[in-house]
Design goal:
single chain; four-stranded antiparallel beta sheet; three-stranded antiparallel beta sheet; 3 helices
């Protein structure tokens, strides 16, 4: 099941605050991806790239550019619930 993303906010230390359309809020730490998926290292290496994250059309994912993205399910399944 898709949990559409309404809004995404970059926080400090490579953490994202994801607000879903149903009102659920989750925190997602991108840092664990640096060792797992090489392309995510660009978020550390290119100044300000991490803060350019945006919600994709339709809310089914987020992206930083044409090469770096995450699905809404990744954020939902591996994010930590947060009281906003």
């Amino acid at each position: 099941m898709f949990h559409k993303i309404k809004e995404i906010k970059p926080l400090k230390r490579y953490v994202l605050l994801a607000i879903f359309q149903d009102g659920t809020v989750k925190m997602y730490d991108v840092g664990h991806l640096f060792d797992e998926i090489e392309i995510f290292n660009a978020l550390k290496e290119i100044p300000c790239l991490f803060h350019r994250v945006k919600v994709d059309i339709g809310g089914y994912g987020i992206s930083w550019n044409d090469e770096i993205d995450l699905s809404c399910d990744e954020l939902w399944d591996n994010g930590v619930s947060y009281e906003y």
